[in-house]
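Please review the protein record below. Tell me whether the encoded fold seems credible here:
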Amino acid sequence: MKTLNKQIAAYTQQLQLGEIQIAYRGILAFTGKLRVDFVKKYPHYDVSNIYQGYLDMSYFSVSTKPLKEKGLKIAIVYLHEKGSFEVWLSARNRDIARTHQAILDSLSDEINVFHDGNNQDAIAECVLIGTPDFENPAQLINTIEQGVEKFVAAIINHL
């Protein structure tokens, strides 16, 4: 395993190329536009601020009154390493998450959901788009919104 100094040197070298910063700003700018679109288009959602992350994931959450009452929320997540957008059902805490784990099985009949055992932040996950086209933001926003709407409807139907 490389030492921390060697890892930081490799990181610095990549940053000096300048592409990581441009890509990261582009991802966050798009996520900001997506968030603003959710605020405008879906006034019945409570929309959080964007969590920028540590180059692992960037996300914002949305919630409805029925979800909030159960301690649940929906996270719209960009996974940097995978380069994909997912939507997650998350809970306020681990106890609430455990009480809703069975929803994963009932959802799988309606939508393509899964749970990565290493992801402690989600009860159920669904890939919205595996290879997003950031150069067509209107279409990307539309695709993500349609996927989130379908996911939220399925969740609410099973609560």
